[in-house]
Every structure is written in structure tokens, then in C-alpha cells.
Amino acid sequence: MSLFTQGHRSICPNEIAYAGSSIAVTERPDEFEMFWEPAVSIFRNGVMAHDLRFALRMIFSHRWFSAAVVATLALGIGLNTMVFTLINAVLFKPVPVPGGARLVSILGRNLAMNERFLPMSYPEFQDYRSQSSSFEALEGVIDEEGVLSEIGNPPQPYHLLRASSGILSMLHTDAVMGRGFVQGDDKPGADPVLVIGYGVWKDRYGGVSSVLGRQVRVNGQPATIVGVMPKGFRFPTGVDLWMPLVPVPDLMKRENRRVQMYGILKPGVSVHQASNEFDGIATRLTRQYPATNKDMGASVETFHQRYNGGGIRVVFLLMLAAVAFVLLIACADVANMMLSRALSRKREMSIRTALGASRWRVIRQMLIESLLLSALGGILGLVLAAFGVHWFNLSTEDVRPYWIHFTMDYSVFGYFAALCMFSGLLFGTAPALRSSRPDLNEVLKEGARSVSRHREGWLSGLLVIFQFALTLVLLTGAGIFAHSLLANLSINPSIPAAQLMIARIDLPEMRYKDSDARQRFYDQLMPRLRAIPGVSHVAIVSAPPGLGAARQQIELEHAPIGEPARRPWISLLAQSPGYFDAIHMPMLAGRDFIDIDGAPQHNGAILTRDAASHFWPNQNAVGKRFRLFDDQNKPTEWITVVGISANMVQEVGSNDPKPLIFVPSRQEGWDSMSLMVESATDPTAAVRAAVQNLDQELPLRDASRLSQALEHQTWYLRLFGKLFGSFAFIGLIMASVGIYAVIAHTSSRRTQEIGVRMALGASVRNILMLVMRRGLWQIGAGLALGIAIAIPAARLMASLPIGVSASDPSVFIAVAVVLVAVGVFACWLPARRAASLNPVQAIRYE
User: Fold this and answer.
1) Which of 100, 689, 794, 802 could form a disulfide with 806 if both were Cys (CB 3.0 to 4.6 A apart)?
2) CB pairs under 8 A, 24+ apart, for 766-770?
3) Is the CA virtual torsion 557, 563, 569, 574 positive or negative?
4) pLDDT digits (tens, 9 = 90+) for 399-454
5) How far is Cα 73 from Cα 732, in angstroms, rounded to an integer?
6) pLDDT tens digits for range 446-505
7) CA dist., res. 519 & res. 806, Å (int)
8) Cα(23)–Cα(394) distance, rounded to whole angstroms?
9) Rounded to two decimals, what is the model's pTM?
10) What angle do CA 836, 840, 842 make, to 5 degrees?
């Protein structure tokens, strides 16, 4: 049947449905309208269902095309859903206790020094609790280490929380055996009670019910086990034991600041309102107690802000940005595919328009197809996201806090639904707008192949440029993570980390009251450790290499600084003689510590080479003097530099390392030190026995090889580096496929032109360059745009507290080389195929 007849159109029922609108007919209009008006009304009411059926037919009739679109979208939507699930669990999902969304943490802050997260005194806790009206409950805690010991069981270190008696009832959490705290447990003179965690009950006591009523010792003091908490409960962070916080006389001193607070806000009270109320209370306390409370305030934060802020929050948000880039790349890829397919459907769209379909009708039909494809991709992506969340759950099992559960909830599914709709509209809008305005005359006369051959290309080219720019940013971010990980893994190469056993010893103040008592313990311990078979070196240090350091302010002799805020900071380690031998660190000038160093009138220090050149540039630092300042801004005696060591990295992952200075352990006398024992075999059991032969209630803490401790320190770089690398690889594949598809489609539309050129004498090289020129231009433009975005993004990453550095340009060079190589290869494949065409067949190609 012809589409047009003399004087009127002849239309079959299928063509009416295809047109999507009523048709004005000149012959017998009254009878026509009377006959068709009800049918047209029914048609209009069911037009959306018709669009859906037609979209499904188009999807299933082009199975391979639809499968490619669905797979691409599944990756983009699945990754975004997975990362949002993780972020929701870490940053937004309330702590799983009743009222968990209103749970807050309160710490002190020094307004003059701009210091936050400071503990408070017990009297301050009482003042805030009695004067505040913003909380349903407000409880005080002291976080400390606890050694659990008893007859028949060796002492074991655990995480202990001393808390006011209402802490468990505030959290609406009951013991699974026995009881929690009751009123009166935290009163002076009450019998000491202990509530243990589920893990302690299972691991130490075998899960027996007879544990209730057992007499034990906690840090050398007697206590009675009265309850076992539920499995998984370790409030606030990894706690194993809970004891009442009893206000002993020393704790009642206002200058003794050890208490933190947790509270549940009343319904309708915001964190900001509670902060304002606490500011007013702090002002009153300053007026009332100026000697101890001057410039002291309080900081109220949500539980997530307190424990999931800083670097972890930043890394998760960076992950969300990375997968958003992946989704944009996927949508650009699909949009290019839809544009290419739209060219082959121009005749269809022209016929629909000629039969009366409005522009909105055509746009709606194509958007419905896009949304259906997006929904199908989303369903597959949701399955991929579930597997990804399960993998992340297993990968972080040993390091994530107990309250974080990576599960999908209604907010995740809402985000997923919005993402599917957004993606469908994002990649479907441009092809729909382009297809809705066909040139009817050109299409019907010459066919879709000759229409707008060059006019369509600019949008596809922009999409390819956009893909390559985003891929370069993704690859740069992954490269920065990988570079920082390698740098952290290769720190201090001269130190035999795999042969060094480390363990921390905390000497209880009750039994080791001063630095002389602590030094006598180590003087007895060191010879016993050296006598262990296979041990070559033994030393003690405040923190092993790479695992942090204390920080203090410094003042050089003959260079006084009156204002405390202007004094420079240093990283400080206390160590015993022989420490540099244990870590195989050479001395560059002066000497190592000897036994007399640290004794009265023999204060000495060793500086790294960088620290010496920082404070005394172009001078010999040996013999120079300085002094340090403690937390109360009191200066020490003058300290003399006795040696210069080689450089070493002490703070892995720090964006702000300070000059490193070593002082003798006898000089500082800290109660917490780390043993370092060099041995080819594992000496942990022998070391533990030697320690407990001197003190039966003194356990080893965190015993491991130094290499294992450093790996644990950089776990987040490893894990997130893998994730960023995976995202970048997926983005690279998508961008490569995108440019390949565009070049292949363009070259296929120019088959006749290529055949003519070859028939007229064009060489293979000419054809290769003809086909590749556009792709190479797009690659270059994408690289330029990507670098313009990646440089500030890298600087931003380097400034964040996540331990990465972006100062090495090798990352940018390597990423650009990889991207160019992949892009050129993606252009060369269709160019080579075009160059191998038979000219005669190419000229006849339709």
C-alpha cells in the first residue's frame, strides 16, 4: 500500500496506532468522527501501555544491542549502589540501639589553643549533667586498658570502659546473662563489679554459665563478674569489659581530666541546640572555677561525626565521586550507542512524524525505551552491588567498628530507584531530542544513511571527549592511591621488619609509681630477653618505626620564642641504648646513647639528618642544645644533641610529618613502651614468659612482627586502592569501547567514500589516518580536559587527612601514556578494517 494517494491518505489500522494521533480525513468527516471517536478515546487512554509494549518489542528484537546497554548500565548503577550502601552504613545509618539516631558524644575543647577532643574532669561531667536540659540521658566514661587476671588463667589485656551506672540502660541494652549496672554500683564503697563482653565470655571462659559470681582482678584490683553482654555489643568502640565509674578522691579533682560523655538527645533537640546550651554552661563554669576552667568549652557531635569523620569519611566520599564518574562514563557510552542506533531509526521516526505523531510523542517513546533499559541494567546492577557489599563486608571484618553493618535498607533502594531513573533520562534525552526532529524530505527521498552525516558527529565526539576526561581523572586517583601505598610499603628499607618482633608493655601506675621503678623493671628484663636463643638485638622504644610518635613543642638555645603558638613542633621518641642497632639504622655523626644518658645532668638527644638540617642548617648540630615543653607549657631542662642518625619514616600515612628527635627512655620514663626483639624465629612465647617471671599480672599487648603491624597500618590504602583501581579499569574499558564504537560506526557510514578514495589511489596509510584522525583529536581533547580536572583533584586529595601524596608527576605521565595507548589501539582497530576493504565492494556498499 502506498503511503500517499491522490487527494487523501490511505491508512491501515496498524499505521494509525503507529502514528500515535488521530488523523483528519477529508471524505465524510461526520461519519468518520462518529465511528472513530470512541475508538480514538480508548486508544488515547491506553497509549502509555502501547508505548511500553512497543519499547519491549524493540528491546527484545535487538537483543545484542540491548544486552550491551544493559551490561554497561549494570556496572555503573551497580557500583554506585554498592558504594552508597557502604556510605549509608558508615555515615548515615543510626547506631543499632533505640534512639541511636540521637546518640551524641561530648568532649572538652580548649578555646584558646583551638584544641578539640579533650577529656573533662568528673566534676565537670556532674555539672553538665545537672545543668543540661537537652538530654534524655547523659553518662560519663573513662576509656582505658584493662588487664584481666585470676588464679588458673594467665593475664590478658582487654579494652576496658569505666562508666557511670546508667550507661547500659541509656542504650536500652540488657545483659544476656546476669545483669548490667544498677543504681549504686558507681557509689564510693560499693563492691566492685565487672560486666564482660560476649567474646571474652566465649574465648576466655568457654561460654560457661558458672562465670557469674567469679572473683577476678582487673588491673590488679578485685572485682566480681555479674553479667555478660550480647554478642556484637562493644559500645562505644571495641570495648571488652565494663566497670562502674566510681568517683574516688583523685578523680574528683577538677584538674584531673579523664572523662568523656555520651548522651541521648531529647526528641526534637538538635546537636546545634545542645552545643549552644553546653557553651552557656561552660561560660558559667569558667566564671565559677577560673583556675581550672579558663578557656575550656565542650564539643557536642553525633556518634558518626565522632567516630566516622576525618580520613574514613573523606575516603568514602571519594569513592562515591569515583563511582559517579563511572556512571557518567557508562551513560556517555550508552548515549553514544543510542545515537548510533537512532540514525538507523530515522526512517521509522520520519514515518511516524509524517503520520501525525507529535515531537513529544516521539520523545516519550524513546525515553520509555531508555528507562526500560536502565531498569533492566539496574536490576542486574543490584545483584552485582549485593555481591560487592558482601565482599567488602568480608574484607573489613577485622577492622570495621561493631556498629557498622553493610546491609541494604529502604534508603539504599530509594537511591537505587532514583539512580535508575536518572540514568535512563541522562543517556536517553539527547538521542530522543535528536531523533524527534527528522528532515522528512531528505529521509524519505534518500534514506537515513545520507542525512546529517557530519551534523550528528559532533555530539558523539563530545561524549567521547567527556569519557576520556573522566577516565583520566579516575586513573589519576587510582594511581595516587597505588603510588602512596607503594611509598608506604617501601619505607625504611634498611629496617628488617620481618625479623623484628614488637609488643607493648604498659606498667601499671599502682605498682610502678615513678620512672625509677619503671627503669628497674626494664633493667631486669633486658638481660633475660637477650638470653633467649636466636635473639640478636633487644631494645625498648615508645613507638616502633612507622607507627607514630609523640609530639611536643621545641625551643632552640639562643633563639627564645615567647608566644607558645609560634613554637615549632617535633615528633619525639624515647628509646633505650641499642635501639639503632636493633633497627639497623646507621649513625652519621656523634654517638649512640649509652647507659648514663638520661640520668640527671646528662640529658641527651639524637636527631635524624633532616631534623638537624631543619633546625641548624649548614651547621654541625652535635653539641647544640634545645628544650621541650610539656602539656602544661612547662619547659624541660636543656638537652644536648649527642648524635645524628640516618633519616627514617616514623609516621606512616601522615600528611604533616614533623622533625624526628630521639631521647633516652631513662630521661622520659614513660609507663607505656614497646619491646623490639630481633630474631629469625618467633620469640613471642619466650618473651611473654620472661615478662611474667618478673610480674605475673603483666601481659604483652599487640605482639606481632613489625611487618604485620605496618600492613595493618596501611589496610585502608590497600583496600581502597583496589577499589579505585577497579573503578578506573572499568572506566578505561568503557571509554575504549566508546571510542571504538564511534570510530567503527563512522567508518562504516563512510564505506563508499573510502572505496572511492582507494579506487583513486589512496594508500593504506592515507586511509588509516583518515579514519583515525577524528579519534586522535578526541583523545587529545579528552586528555587536555582530563588533566585540567585531575591536577586540582590530585592536590585536593593530597591535602586531605588520608595519607596520600600527589607530588610525583610520574603518576600523571603514566596515566596519560596508558590512556593514549589504549585510545590509539581502539582507533586503530576500525581503521585497519577500513583500510582492508575491497574498493569495488565498498563503492557498491549500501
Assistant:
1) 794
2) 767/831, 767/834, 767/835, 768/828, 768/831, 768/832, 768/834, 768/835
3) positive
4) 777 778 888 888 999 999 999 999 888 887 877 777 666 555 555 554 444 444 44
5) 15
6) 444 444 444 455 677 787 888 888 888 888 887 877 777 777 667 788 889 889 999 999
7) 44
8) 63
9) 0.73
10) 60
